[in-house]
Amino acid sequence: MQAGYVALSLLASTIPVAGNEQSVAGAVHPKAGTYKLQKIQPAPSGWVLEDSVWIPRRLSSYTKDKITLFSFFYATCRDPEGCPKSWDAFNKVHEAIKKDPRLQNKVRLVFLSLDPKVDTPEMMSFFKTSISTPQAPWSFLTTWNDTYLAPILNDLYVPASREFDDAGKPTDVINHLVKVFLIDKDSWVREIYTTSFLNPDVVLSDIGTLLLEEE
For position 168, what pLDDT does the model report? Predict the structure, then answer.
C-alpha cells in the first residue's frame, strides 16, 4: 500500500478527489473501507515488562483482541525525525480515539522501549498513568535487558544500535529505523509506516478499514 500511496502523493495536485477518496495533507488517500490491507506477518511474541520488573508479560497479550498501533521508542531520544515524530503521531491518534465512540475500547497504542537500562518499569508506569485512559489504552513497555529486546526487533526487521563517542564509550543515542506497525485483533501486522508515511489521518483511515473488516 505504501508504494501506491507514494504515487498518489505525487499526482495529488492533478487528480480530483473522488467519492471514495479523501484529501490527506495534500495527498489523496482512499476512504476507510474502500480498500483492503493485506496480512504482512504475524506480530512478534517475547517477554516484556510494564508495571513491575517482577511480573513478566507476553508481548502477544498486547497485540490481540484489539486493533493495535505499535512502535519502538526510548525516553531520551531527541532526533526530531525519530521518537518525537512517532510520539506526535501516536498522540494525535490517541486524541482521536478518545473523541470518537466508534474507536473507543477497540484500539490500543503500544510503545516498547529500546533502552531497558534507562526506561525502567517505574518510568514506563509514569507515562502510562499520565496519558492512558480506559477507553483509549496506551501501554508503555520495556524489557529486562537487550537480550530480551533483540528477538522482538529481529522479528519486525527493525535495526537498532547504540552510538559510541570518539573514545569508544557508549552514548545515550540509539540509532534505529522508525517503523510503526498496525496490527489487527488477530495479531497480524496489516500495515507498516515509516516516518515518510506516518500521517495520523492515514493511520486512522486504516484503523477504520480494519474495523469495517471486522464487522
Answer: 84
- Please name the residues in contact with 28: beta carbons below 8 A apart, sequence gap of 6 or more: 8, 9, 11, 12, 15, 17, 21, 22
105: left (phi over 0), alpha (psi -120 to 50) or beta: left
**Which is nearest to 147 in space by CA: 71, 46, 59?**
46
Domain segments of the chain as ranges: 1-31, 39-214
Cβ burial, residue 131 (10 Å; 0-12/13-18/19+)? middle
Q: How far apart are CA 175 and CA 124, in angstroms?
A: 21
Determine the pLDDT at residue 215. 82
Average pLDDT over residues 60-66: 97
The C-alpha angle 175, 179, 181, rounded to 5 degrees, equals 150
* Domain 39-214 part of CATH 3.30.428.70: no
Contact, 176 vs 82, CB < 8 A? yes
| C-beta of residue 66 within 8 angstroms of C-beta of residue 60 | no
Global pTM reads 0.86
**192 grid coordinates:** 507498516
Q: State the average pLDDT over residues 105-126.
A: 95
pLDDT digits (tens, 9 = 90+) for 108-118: 999 999 999 99
Residue 175 pairs in a beta bridge with 161
